[in-house]
Design goal:
Length: 332
Amino acid sequence: MSSGGQNEFREGLREELASVAASLRAYLEWQQDTGATGIPRRPRGAAPVPIPGPGPAPVPETGSNAARPSPPSPPLTHPAAAPPMPAPAPDPEPMPVSARHAPIDPAFAQAPPPPPAPVAAPAPAAAPVSVRAPVVTGPPRPLPVIAAEVVSCTKCELAKTRTNTVFSRGNPEAKLCFVGEAPGADEDAQGIPFVGRAGQLLDRMIQAMGLDPEKDVYVCNIIKCRPPGNRKPEPEETDACIPYLHEQIAVVDPKVIVALGNTAVGTLLNTKLGITKVRGSWKLYRGKIPVMPTYHPSYLLRPSAQQGEAKKQAWDDLQAVMKELGLPPKRA
């Protein structure tokens, strides 16, 4: 090859290298701009795009010294523009220089694990509600409405054996309320509390206080149905029936309550102490109504050598009630 041909070949090679360098530079700039690391591929079926040379094609020399031109090199193609990649989310801090030279393909970046789902705090356990102290909202119902509900009540087994429900007797506007245990046979037959022998003794005790048993007092029981055989009421029977009594007392709103016997005292005052432990001492019903615990009239009717002392103690208890009501003392 002549010197002129060599020069021409070098010049052509230089231009080819310059074109390759320009293509490589464009590719690196595209990588930096898009953050991609792979080699883009042109879409299937797309024709290669020729890259023009940086200058005009050289003019071959003429004359005897002109060498045959070398076969043309295949044209270089510029890679087809890849579809735009989504811009990566900005980092909270500036990206270091080293990271710019080694960009991470967002398609292969591992996303941080999602935060764990919050664990719901366990619901607080509901406070138990005692049927002996129901929460009363709004004004109490009228006594006839409560009595009508008692008539149709089937909350316990006593509903299957009763003849009548026994609600109350006396004056609902009285200042003094007597609360007994449960109806007996006579009360179950008539539907009225304290009409048997114990009721007759109670009437005499009330009259000894200078009061009228029908006009000056209100009389009721813890239980509204007779327990078979006059047995002591079961706890489930008391729990089923006591809300009615709470409503009765709320309507009557007496100034003083006399609790007759163990069942009445234990239920009204929520105590397990026997009547001999608490009688004669003032207590409070729901923190506001004075309660005087004393013996049940049926207990005072029992034949016993100690009954004389019990009757005297019961009268002393009623004297304390009279004093609380502002009544003059009476002799038994």
